[in-house]
Amino acid sequence: HSVEREAFGGANAHTLSPAQEAARQAERNRTLSRLSQEQIDYFRTIWRRWDGRPILQTTSVRVLEMWGDRNLPHPSLEAMQIPDRDNIQVVWAVGSSHTLPLEVPRAVAAVINRFVQP
C-alpha cells in the first residue's frame, strides 16, 4: 500500500483513458456493491497493514512482479520494497499504471505466458 506513495508519488490511474477509467470505476462499484461496509473496512485495514517483504525475502518460488511505470522513471527495487533476488523478475509496462489487465491486457498475457513456460 505504501509503495504507490513512496515509489510513485501516489500516481495510480493517470495513464487511463476516459473509457478505461469509466470501466475501472464500473468494475470497482460492481465489486464493492457485493460487500458490506464492514467487509470493505476490514479489507482496507488488512491492505494497509500487509507487508510482503518477508515472503519475498525468503521464498524459493519464482516470483513475477509486473508494474506499470506511470510514465515516470523506474523506482529502485528498494523503493518498491522488492528484494534483489535471482528468483524475482520485475517487468515494466511502459505508459501504464495500476490496472495493467485493463490497460495492456495482451502485454500482461504475454509476460505471464513467458514466465510460466518451462
Number of helices: 7
Q: Sheet bearing the most strands, described? A: 2 strands, parallel
Distance between the termini: 32 Å
How would you write the strand order of the largest sheet? Answer: 1-2
How large is the radius of gyration?
16 Å
Helix content: 40-55%
As residue ranges, the low-confidence spans are: none
**Averaged pLDDT, please?**
92
Please tell me what the overall shape is: globular
What's the helix-strand series?
HHHHEHEHH
General description of the model:
With 118 residues, the chain is mainly α. The protein contains seven helices and two strands, in the order H-H-H-H-E-H-E-H-H. A two-stranded parallel ribbon has the order 1-2. Helix 5 links the parallel strand 1 and strand 2. It is globular. The mean pLDDT is 92.
Quick structural gist:
By secondary structure, this protein is mainly α. The chain contains seven helices and two strands, in the order H-H-H-H-E-H-E-H-H. It has a two-stranded parallel sheet.
Descriptors:
2 strands; 118 residues; single chain; two-stranded parallel sheet; mainly alpha
What is the element layout, followed by pairings?
Layout: H1 2-8, H2 18-33, H3 37-49, H4 53-58, E1 63-68, H5 77-80, E2 88-93, H6 100-103, H7 105-116
Parallel strand pairs: 1-2
